[in-house]
């Protein structure tokens, strides 16, 4: 299967602000693709150009082999778009909402009702959407964008306004979206969300893509140390420093923390000393990647 | 087609479930109809209050038909206490105090309301003259035969119903269009629909269809209530008000489209719609007849679309005019709609940003 999205040298300015600055990438069929970056990084504008909501100043975007601008109804049938959780008709119930959206794509009401079940909202079917919780609204909103079974779906910060618990609940649903070969593009400003869901992540800041790869490869590419901590009575700081491969040792109130670039060797040594009590291992995260790329802390 | 039907269904449900919108577009104007049609209906037909002190032979010996006519004009209370009668006259509770001394009819009145007193004196005088003529035993030489030019049933309700209906339709069409547009744009629903393979015609068509349905519903409720409760009588070509009302709805939806295109919040858009519609309703004769309006007001009101809607409805619904009476108003309203839609298209956006 070829590329579902091709973005070539996209650029878009608002006044003197270069919101999207020479962005190129492609998304493969069936991929779960994330665009990650802080607010104002240019994620949404990139998505708007891809979806055909506005034209790029320069460059071009093709979806499923068709230019996304100008508006093309036959292309719109093949893609799904979720904008934000409040994009609903006023004073309709959950069932009425999704059936209305289904009808826009000539999809029968029965299919719409099935989708309500798939996102776990059967028992809320007769509730007005303004009575639903934030997470329930998001589920409904996602279901509405998938009701016509699109090959490609765009989700703009689907967990943006949710509390951490609701966000994690939604991940199960999101991670199943590309199970049957559907391509998913998601923007997020949550590092851990991109790590948990995406096959590949484009990290954006100031309108540019800084890095694009799988989360694991991005972290590996950092050559960042792995941090391990064990209980203080398991090993002393000086013993720990003597272990081969340990770069740094730090004494915490209740633990000793080691940094290493050869975690396998160090773990073996610790095991030999029976010093694994309270062991915690923490690798680098996308947050470290962002820090390395931009030289500053990630601000969501 | 399924998109059109489902969008229209969603809009109808949204409207019917919006108690505020239903109140302001249907029940609020109906309250004015009840007020004007019911409470103010008897004004101008009230009888002249009169106190008769002691016996007044003129009245008591009046033949039955004359007495009936007299009772239509005067509300007579009888008393023997001349002082208390005069005190009531001074307070303005009655218009005349009448007393007979021999062949002299003494009439006392107050200068406080000169017009009413003059009318009352003149009316009483005419009854006295009639009695004088009868007393001569000769047939009267001259007779006055009067006949008014309007339908005998021409009452307040006839005039207020078309005007209030015009106001009700102007309000709901303008607000419906403005609030839907701003609301849908701010929740991104407008964009979301745009990202579905739906033609603009289906979306706009659904909105127009629903607004027309609401307008016709308003008309049915208005006319039904006015006819059943207040005795409204429609003239021959009243049904020509239906196509007129359709063009009026389009004109005011265009105005709502403009308000919704220019402003970003529901509050600002409905404030603008209010600024358009309410003064227009006053100037266009929705609340009072413009028959006696000064010339400048007449000129100004002919610059407003609601004046044409109101006049056209008055002509065919109660003035008994033919279908031709709505041609000019319909043309003006359609022209207005077209111009305003063109202006709106300069401001219209799918998104807020």
Give start-end ranges of low-pLDDT stretches of chain B: none
So, the CATH homologous superfamily of the largest domain in chain A?
A: P-loop containing nucleotide triphosphate hydrolases
The H-and-E topology of chain A, N to C, reads as EEEHEEHEHHHEHEHEEHEHEEHEH
Strand percentage of chain B, roughly?
A: 5-15%
Shape of chain A: globular
Query: For the CA atoms, what is the radius of gyration of chain A?
Result: 23 Å
What is the CATH T-level topology of the largest domain in chain A? Rossmann fold
Tell me the number of structural domains of chain A. Answer: 2
Number of strands of chain B: 4
Mean pLDDT of chain A: 90
Class based on secondary structure composition and strand pairing of chain B = alpha/beta
Q: Bin the strand percentage of chain A.
A: 25-35%
The global form of chain B is elongated
Mean pLDDT across all residues of chain B, rounded? 87
Largest interface: A-B, 27 and 27 residues
What is the chains' assembly state? heterodimer
Secondary structure tally: strands of chain A: 14
List the domain count of chain B as a whole number. 2
SSE topology string of chain B: HHEHHEHEEHHHHHHHHH
Strands across the major sheet of chain B, in which order?
A: 2-1-3-4
Task: Work out the helicity level of chain B.
Answer: 55-70%
């Amino acid at each position: 299967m070829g590329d579902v999205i091709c973005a070539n040298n996209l650029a878009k300015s608002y006044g003197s602000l270069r919101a999207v600055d020479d962005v190129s990438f492609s998304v493969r069929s069936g991929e779960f693709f994330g665009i990650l970056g802080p607010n104002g990084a240019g994620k949404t504008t990139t998505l708007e150009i891809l979806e055909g909501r506005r034209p790029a100043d320069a460059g071009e975007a093709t979806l499923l082999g068709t230019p996304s601008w100008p508006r093309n109804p036959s292309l719109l049938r093949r893609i799904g778009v979720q904008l934000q959780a409040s994009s609903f008709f006023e004073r309709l119930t959950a069932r009425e909402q999704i059936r209305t959206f289904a009808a826009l794509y000539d999809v029968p009401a029965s299919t719409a009702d099935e989708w309500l079940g798939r996102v776990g909202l059967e028992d809320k079917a007769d509730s007005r959407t303004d009575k639903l919780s934030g997470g329930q609204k998001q589920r409904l909103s996602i279901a509405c964008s998938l009701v016509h079974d699109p090959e490609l779906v765009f989700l703009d910060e689907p967990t943006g306004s949710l509390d951490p618990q609701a966000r994690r609940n939604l991940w199960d649903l999101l991670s199943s979206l590309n199970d049957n070969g559907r391509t998913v593009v998601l923007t997020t400003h949550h590092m851990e969300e991109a790590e948990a869901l995406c096959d590949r992540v484009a990290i954006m800041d100031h309108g540019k893509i800084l890095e694009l790869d799988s989360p694991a490869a991005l972290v590996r590419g950092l050559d960042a140390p792995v941090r391990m901590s064990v209980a203080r009575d398991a090993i002393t700081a000086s013993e720990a420093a003597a272990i081969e491969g340990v770069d740094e040792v730090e004494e915490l109130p209740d633990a000793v923390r080691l940094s290493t670039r050869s975690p396998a060797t160090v773990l073996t040594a610790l095991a030999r000393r029976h010093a694994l009590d309270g062991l915690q291992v923490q690798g680098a995260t996308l947050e470290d990647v962002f820090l390395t790329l931009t030289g500053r802390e990630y601000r969501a | 087609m399924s998109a059109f039907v489902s969008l229209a269904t969603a809009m109808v449900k949204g409207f019917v479930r919006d108690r505020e919108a239903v109140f302001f577009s249907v029940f609020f104007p109906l309250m004015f109809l009840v007020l004007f049609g019911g409470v103010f209906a008897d004004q101008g037909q009230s009888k002249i209050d009169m106190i008769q002190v002691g016996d007044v032979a003129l009245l008591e010996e009046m033949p039955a038909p004359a007495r009936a006519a007299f009772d239509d004009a005067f509300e007579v209370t009888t008393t023997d206490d001349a002082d208390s009668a005069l005190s009531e006259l001074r307070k303005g509770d009655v218009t005349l105090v009448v007393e007979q001394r021999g062949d002299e009819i003494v009439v006392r009145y107050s200068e406080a309301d000169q017009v009413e007193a003059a009318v009352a004196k003149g009316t009483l005088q005419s009854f006295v003259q009639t009695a004088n003529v009868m007393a001569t035993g000769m047939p009267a030489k001259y007779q006055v035969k009067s006949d008014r030019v309007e339908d005998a049933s021409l009452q307040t309700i006839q005039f207020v119903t078309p005007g209030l209906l015009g106001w009700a339709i102007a309000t709901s069409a303008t607000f419906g269009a403005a609030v839907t547009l701003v609301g849908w744009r701010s929740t991104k629903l407008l964009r979301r629909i745009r990202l579905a393979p739906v033609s603009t015609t289906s979306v706009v068509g659904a909105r127009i269809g629903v607004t027309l349905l609401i307008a016709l519903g308003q008309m049915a409720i208005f006319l039904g209530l006015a006819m059943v409760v207040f005795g409204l009588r429609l003239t021959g070509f009243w049904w020509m008000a239906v196509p007129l009302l359709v063009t009026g709805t389009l004109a005011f939806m265009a105005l709502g489209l403009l308000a919704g295109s220019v402003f970003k919040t529901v509050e600002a858009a409905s404030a603008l719609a209010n600024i358009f519609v309410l003064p227009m309703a006053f100037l266009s004769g929705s609340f009072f007849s413009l028959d006696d309006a000064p010339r400048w007001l007449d000129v100004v009101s002919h610059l407003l679309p609601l004046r044409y809607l109101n006049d056209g409805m008055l002509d065919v619904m109660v003035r008994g005019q033919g279908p031709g009476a709505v041609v000019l108003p319909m043309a003006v309203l359609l022209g207005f709609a077209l111009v305003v839609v063109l202006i709106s298209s300069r401001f219209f956006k799918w998104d807020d940003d």
